[in-house]
Amino acid sequence: MTLFHYARAAALALLCAETPFLPARAEAPQQRVQAPGWQRTMLGDFEITALSDGTHVFPVTTVMTGIDAAAIDGALARQGLALPVQGSINAFLVNTGKQLVLIDSGAGALYGPCCGRVLENLRAAGYRPEQVDVVLLTHLHKDHVGGILADGKRAFPNAVVRVAAPDARYWRDPAARAQAPAFLSSFFDAARAALAPYDAVGRFQPFDAAAGAELAPGIRPLAEPGHTPGHSGYLVESRGQALLVWGDVVHVAALQLDHPQAAVTYDSSAADAVGTRRALLERVAADRLLVGAAHIAFPGLGRLRRNGAGFTWLPLNYEGDPADPH
Fold first, then answer.
1. Residue in 204, 176, 202 with CA at minimum distance from that of residue 188
2. Least enclosed by CB within 10 Å: which of 42, 65, 166, 303?
3. Residue 101: enclosing H or E segment and its boundaries?
4. How far apart are CA 143 and CA 164, in angstroms?
5. How far is Cα 60 from Cα 132, in angstroms, rounded to an integer?
């Protein structure tokens, strides 16, 4: 090293010693919000848009039955989760090219500020509530029916609202309300209030799920008894591709995919709900059906793979241009 290089190094060292560090500029506040909650895929000629209504803490330890605390902790740990667990509330918009069909509507104002975001996410996805032709409800629990109401009025003013007839009868029956567990009382009240504006103008039309007739082109109901008296899924089919929007077959995937016997206190019949879950998990895995799940982590679109005695959830691959995956 020459004298010049020694002198230069000494000068730089002196400069660094005498120059204070510049102040950090990373002082912007954290935003603590997510991107607009929608994700899109194609199903044959149909466009499917998953819509997030938000997430909330699911009270696993107080509502899950048929599984003990140790099994809960173990199952969550295997998925890298721990209590409390956030649960998604998802809805699904189907554009058939001729009709715009919304399957479930989220909680609306019924769950507080955590949720009620289906309308804003529907708009963010490029649609308007008045464009929805049909709203199909898997059942009439608050987090599925609440979103059809906005400020006491029809959130989807041009839509016909449909649900399986047993659910329509049960949740609007004062005698059933009187006999149900006390914690369900507000569910009866919420269902009646949400449906009333549609019923008043002839836009609430229950259907017979057992008949399996098309409710919209390419969309048929599938009876899924147990969670509620008329709990139904919807099989959406186009050009040989199929999507099963299954409602509340699974509430906590980390538990119920490996422990399908785990039920929830909200089930009208736990035995029937467990039977339905076991049968559908087997069918979905065997047929490689795409699933739209109300309570699996948003967007709730994926498939199942058999994994020993249980099942693994395979989320749908994200595609920047769903209409051209190649």
1. 176
2. 65
3. strand 100-103
4. 17
5. 34
Q: What is the pLDDT of residues 255-286, one digit of tens each?
A: 999 999 999 999 999 999 999 999 999 999 99
Asked, for residue 75, whether it belongs to a domain, the answer is yes
Looking at the chain, the whole-number percentage of residues with pLDDT higher than 90 is: 85
Give the distance, in angstroms, between the CA of residue 272 and the centroid of all CA atoms in the same chain.
22
End-to-end alpha carbon distance in the chain: 59
- Please indicate, yes or no, if residue 27 is contained in any of the structural domains: no
- Domain hosting 73: range is 36-312
The answer to whether residue 243 is domain-embedded is yes
DSSP letters, 14-55, are: HHHHHSPPPPP---PPP---PSP-EEEEEETTEEEEEEEEEE
Helix, strand and coil content of the chain, in percent to the nearest 5, comes to 35, 25, 40
Nearest to 134, CA basis, from 244, 217, 243, 247: 217
Token digits of residue 172? 């609007």
Number of folded domains in the chain?
1
Per residue in 48-107, pLDDT (tens digit) is 999 999 999 999 999 999 999 999 999 999 999 999 999 999 999 999 999 999 999 999
Confidence of residue 211 (pLDDT cuts 50, 70, 90): confident
Report d(CA 313, CA 289) in Å as an integer. Answer: 12
| Burial (CB count within 10 angstroms: exposed 0-12, middle 13-18, buried 19+), residue 228 | buried
Q: What is the CATH number of the domain that holds 117?
A: 3.60.15.10
Residues 6+ apart with CB under 8 A from 32: none
Structural domain contains residue 183: yes
Q: Are 261 and 67 in contact (CB under 8 A)?
A: yes
CB atoms within 10 A of CB 199: 15
Q: Rounded to an integer, what distance in angstroms lies between the CA atom of residue 86 and that of residue 157?
A: 32
Instruction: Decide: helix, strand or coil at residue 304.
Output: strand
